């Protein structure tokens, strides 16, 4: 009966999580009833199971029959996860904006509370709208990729299927992978918002007697148009990769390859921008401490180390993904 368990598992992994338990019970009961009918007629249990599962066909096509196949931007399979992530990211963005504006108000001598409230409302509204837009765009991309066959298991044709194509055991994604994907996805979306809407707040805050004098930007704002688009694409590709890990409960070999490819392209863009994009504010040390050669040398060292750390971290992540693909093939 293990094949029945595996078959049912393959069906429900294409369905929304909230409906998986009910459909699992219903489908298992129906299969067992059909197997009992065949065994009552003198057929062996093994042959009966093979016959029933062969007639039921490809688990993916059977799962589609349980879905309400309307024109969705975010389909029912991913909508609960999409809604949860949209709420988390929106809350994180609103909290970040609130903290940033509160700091500016507390350390400013001429700040108006009414102006602060108006600015806070406008910033939170625009920030949340953009956060939801990014989350929607990424989830819609995952949905579309799956529809055209990029993220589903296309090793066999959907109509040309047999029980031999079933995996030898149930495929269960590790919970840690999904949590890691969730954290990476949220971080990437928030970073995209900050870079594209409030780039100037990412810097060194300079105070005089407890009063905020200026914010010395870490990044080269004047030259942002030459590096920011490529950097945003690189971060968005990482977000899509993390979104796939987070949204798809049971990873297939194809989803692993897609994630590896996305991360590879992202790494190439990251490396190009960091090495050739003149991304950092070269005058940061001079603007903070004009007469400190030590700080100037330290800032140069920091810029170089950031490049090395980002590249090494991405290479390690890709090596782990490649190892997971090799291990998956051996299962």
Q: Which key terms come to mind for this protein?
A:
331 residues, mainly alpha, 2 domains, two-stranded antiparallel sheet, 11 helices, 2 strands, 70% helix, 4% strand, elongated
N/C terminus separation = 20 Å
| Pattern of helices and strands | HHHHHHHEEHHHH
Radius of gyration: 26 Å
What's the number of extended β-strand segments?
Answer: 2
Low-confidence blocks of residues? 150-157
Determine the fraction of residues in helical runs and give it as a percent range: over 70%
Mean pLDDT: 78
* Largest sheet composition: 2 strands, antiparallel
Task: Quickly count the domains.
Answer: 2
Strand content: under 5%
Principal-axes shape call: elongated
Largest beta sheet: strand ordering: 1-2
Number of helices: 11
Structural class: mainly alpha
Question: Topology, please?
Answer:
Blueprint: H1 2-12, H2 17-40, H3 45-56, H4 59-66, H5 79-106, H6 113-147, H7 175-197, E1 203-208, E2 211-217, H8 224-247, H9 253-276, H10 284-288, H11 293-330
Antiparallel strand pairs: 1-2
Helix pairs in contact: 1-2, 1-4, 2-3, 5-6, 5-7, 6-7, 6-8, 7-8, 8-9, 9-11
How would you portray this structure in words?
With 331 residues, the chain is mainly alpha-helical. The chain is 70% helix and 4% strand. The chain contains 11 helices and 2 strands; from the N terminus they run αααααααββαααα. It has helices at residues 2-12, 17-40, 45-56, 59-66, 79-106, 113-147, 175-197, 224-247, 253-276, 284-288, 293-330; strands spanning 203-208, 211-217. A two-stranded antiparallel ribbon has the order 1-2. A hairpin with a 2-residue loop joins strand 1 and strand 2. The radius of gyration is 26 Å and the shape is elongated. The two termini are 20 Å apart. The model is unreliable at 150-157 (pLDDT under 50).
